[in-house]
Amino acid sequence: MEYLARGHELGATEGPTGARSLSPALRPVLEALHHVLAGGEVAVRVLRPGNPDLVDELNHRAERATEVSTTLGMAAGDILSATV
User: Fold this and answer.
1) Verdict on whether the full-model pTM lies above 0.85
2) Parent domain of 10
3) How many domains does the chain have?
């Protein structure tokens, strides 16, 4: 939850609670993900690096969210887990 909240603070989503939408800058990234999930192949490249401290923070938050999700899933009997 902290990862998603921080992403919202940084502009990943727009709008009020209950009416949020994905930032236009992220829509192509989500579309690329959908192609990968559908068996396609994509190429991703960073055109202008972001603030390295924020990148590290977000990577850490994503790792922590994965750990928490895996722990909760295993406690609920879910054997599916993933690493970000």
Assistant:
1) no
2) 1-45
3) 2
